[in-house]
Specification:
11-stranded mixed beta sheet; alpha+beta; elongated; 5 helices
């Protein structure tokens, strides 16, 4: 008797042939394998996207947003505090719906290295709309008077100052419950007062019999910035020909954006001024005399405001004052006269 045994062994160089039952199994249950693959892919890929890709996209979108300052008002000024109102617009990519949580941002003077922290600003919750108004009103306590004074000096003396606002917050993307940490970091340029360039004095009058309030005029002060500044009562030292000749007072000094007009009163030593009108070289100027003003003091509601006082005292403002009409009304010539003229 012979036994015929069929071998399933693989010959050299030949591939194994799947059993018909295995092929049938895959054909019948292909959907189960596909589902298992999708489950594994979801478990691995989705957390990676949520933990890595979404936060990066959110930070990139926040970095691309633009902060525009429409107006800043500094009012109710006190020695160690003030009321600050900021009207601003944030322009962002609205294709991704998201909400940025309220946060505390630090405002820096970025013209110096390292940037100088000035104050802190409380930003409200915002959304990723294409243009959103962000209005802030808060009482600011001055924690670093030196830094705040440095900012005011730069704002007064320069044509522009660079400002940075930075703070950590969270962003929530629509459809995802998780909040992701992001950093709000924006720089912008503020127009400066440029040492009151364009300051003019008009409507001068002289009282030769008085020792105080003996010179009155109208001051025209330009403010090319977006800032409203409640300075208070300001006193300036007057210089003529390198010598102190008196002081000028401007009360209730509030600078609004644009041109500002204020009445001024001065206590002036009149003899050096009247003498200059008729002697060289000033008698050749037809009554238009060069003065310098330097801030001496600033008070508001009876309190000294050191950050404005120090800013106004940091630089002299040169100004030409036409006193020809005031002199003529008193019969004082404004031409060179005499042998020494």
């Amino acid at each position: 008797m012979s036994l015929d045994i069929k071998s399933n062994s693989v010959k050299n160089g030949e591939e194994p042939v799947p059993a018909p039952a295995t092929k049938g199994h895959f054909k019948r249950f292909w959907w189960a394998y596909l589902l298992a693959f999708l489950v594994v892919a979801t478990v691995v890929v989705v957390p990676s996207v949520l933990l890595v890709a979404v936060p990066k996209i959110a930070q990139d979108k926040l970095n691309d947003a633009k902060l525009k300052i429409d107006g800043i008002a500094v009012t109710n000024t006190k020695p160690d505090s003030f009321l600050m109102k900021i009207n601003s617009t944030i322009e962002a990519d609205s294709s991704v719906s998201a909400v940025v949580a309220a946060f505390t941002g630090t405002m820096y003077l970025a013209d110096v290295d390292p940037p100088l922290a000035i104050t802190q600003i409380e930003f409200p919750e915002t959304t990723s709309s294409s243009a959103q108004s962000v209005n802030i009103s808060q009482e600011v306590q001055i924690s670093d008077s030196g830094a705040f004074a440095a900012f005011n000096k730069a704002l007064l003396s320069k044509d522009s100052v660079e400002v940075q606002v930075k703070g950590d917050t969270h962003i929530r993307v629509s459809g995802i419950s998780k909040q992701y940490p992001v950093t709000f970091d924006k720089k912008f340029t503020l127009k400066g007062l440029n040492n009151f360039d364009g300051l003019l004095i008009s409507n001068t009058s002289i009282n030769p019999l008085a020792k105080t309030d003996n010179f009155k005029a109208t001051a025209h002060i330009p403010n090319p910035t977006v800032l409203t500044l409640d300075i208070g009562n300001a006193t300036f030292t007057n210089y003529f020909n390198g010598e102190v000749v008196g002081q000028t007072h401007i009360n209730n000094l509030v600078l609004y954006p644009g041109n500002n007009t204020f009445p001024t009163t001065s206590d002036i030593k009149q003899l050096p001024i009247l003498k200059a009108l008729t002697t060289k070289p000033y008698c050749e100027l037809d009554g238009k005399l060069p003065f310098q003003l330097q801030g001496k003091n600033v008070t508001n509601n009876g309190e000294v405001i050191p950050y404005f006082r120090d800013a106004l005292a940091a630089n002299n403002q040169s100004i030409t004052v036409d006193i020809s009409d005031a002199a003529k009304k008193l019969g004082i010539p404004t031409k060179c006269v005499g042998i020494l003229a």
